Amino acid sequence: MHRSSVDDVITQLLCISFVCISGQCCFFTCRLYEYHFIEENKSWYEAQRYCREKYTDLAKVFDMTDMSRLRNSAQNQGEAWIGLNNTGGNRMWHWSLNHITVISEKSFRRQIIEGCYRVFSVGFTGMKKDKKTLHLIETFMNWTQAQSYCRYNHTDLASGPDQVDGEEMKTLFNGRPMSVWMGLFRDSWRWSDGSDFSFRYWDMQLFNDEQNTKTCAMTLLNRSGKWSSDECDKKKHFFCYDDKLILIKENKTWKDALNYCENNYKGLVSITNPEVQGWVQEKAKGADSPYVWIGLSYKCTLGLWLWVSDYVVCYDKWATEGKTEGCDMSVGVDRGGQHEWFSRRNNETYNFICSKW
Questions:
Q1: How many structural domains does the chain have?
Q2: What is the CATH number of the domain that holds 12?
Q3: Where would I find the C-type lectin domain in this sequence (predicted)?
C-alpha cells in the first residue's frame, strides 16, 4: 500500500475515533444555531424586529436538514414567516450547492447564457472528502425539477467551476455535443441578516418568481415545509434563529484570540463540515482584516493539524499552496474570494470567530 493510501486510512480512522469517543458535538449532527417557533401573529417586519431583539434574526435555511429541523421545532401546521424577502434589487447569481461562492459573472458568462437552453441535468454524489462523482441524468427536466431530482437522489446539481468546467464533466460527455443544466441560478431574494445562502425550497405549484409581486417568504408547514410568499403586512406566526458564532472585530494573535474566545465564549470555531464552513464564510465577509482566525493549529508533537475541540481535520478547504506545516502555524480563513484556508504565523494579528455555546 502506498504511503499516501496509508495516511488516508489513518485519517479516516482518526475521524471515526474522535466522533465516537470525544463525546463532543459530532460533526455529522452539529448545528451552529437554534430555531425558535414564535406563536404570535406579526407582520414580516414586526417579526424581523422581534427576532433581532430576542434572538439573532428571522430564520435562514442552509439545506434540507435545516428544513427538517425548522418543521420539527413547530407544532403548528399552518403558514409561518421566514427571513427571506424580495428586495427588488439586482438579481444575484448563486450556486445551488450552498457553500460555493460565485466569484464573478463574467467568468461564467458562456455557461450562464447557455443555461437557459440546457435540457439534461448533471448531479453529483459526494464520496471521500473533497471528491465528487458526477452523474449525467439523461432525462428531460426543467431546472427546478433537475435540482429536486439531484438533491433527492444524489447531492445537488453540479456547482462551482471545478465541477462544471472540470475534466470529469468532459469525460461524461465523451465528445458528444450536449446541453445540460448546471447548478447556477439568480434571483433578487435576500436573507434578513444579509447572508448569501443560496438554498431555496419554493412550492412551484403556488409560486412564480417572475410574476410574483408578494415580497416576503413563508414556509407552508402543511405542504412539507415548502415555501411561498405573501404580502409583508399579513399577520403570521414566524421562526427566529439564534446564532452560535460571533465575529470579533479586534486584531489579535492566534493565541490571544484563543484565550479571548475561551474566556468569553466557548472557544475558537472548529469547522468540521461544509455547512459550518458556509456559516464561517458569512461571518468572514464582515471582517476588518484580510483573514480571520479559526481554531485550527499545527501540533508539532503529534505531527497533525488539530482543532481546539480536539477533532482531527476530516473536512478542509485549503487554498492551493496555502498549507504550510510548522510549530508556529495556525489557520486563517480568507475574508474574500472563495474563503479558503491559509497557514498563517501565530504572531500575526487578525479578527477571529468564536463559538458561543
A1: 3
A2: 3.10.100.10
A3: 35-123, 129-241, 240-355
